[in-house]
Sequence to fold (146 residues):
Amino acid sequence: MSLFGALAVSGSGMDAQRTRAELLVQNLANAETTRTPEGGPYRRKDAVFSSSSVDPSFDDELGAASGEQPVGVSVSDVVTDMRAPERRYMPGHPDADKDGYVLFPNINPAEDMADLIGANRGYDGNIAAIAAVKDMISQSIQMLSA
Fold:
């Protein structure tokens, strides 16, 4: 794989982690949302990653002919959690049913914060990989110019 192929792979990883982080932040922001336009409480969303090919360069095409092909990551689907919502007894709430229970999203903020930290670390790992490739390219240019 070429150095530019490595940049494309890390870029795809950063894009996937960004999407995951956006969904996690959306979950945290809606942890107490009891009414949505679709009806009922907010439903937790999560990203599903899958491997995908990255935009190949000429060198990558030659590598593909020899059986090597750079593979990145993409968000193949966004799944909605269909578990039953949490019921809380709040008879004065505007969304309470006849028995005084309100349906709240089944979201664990601590779990989503831990997942958000994981997404951040994944993003940072891809940034470090891109920085290493940039250094290799820079050193290659310096060696060729000497």
Remarks:
- The chain is about 50% helix and 20% strand.
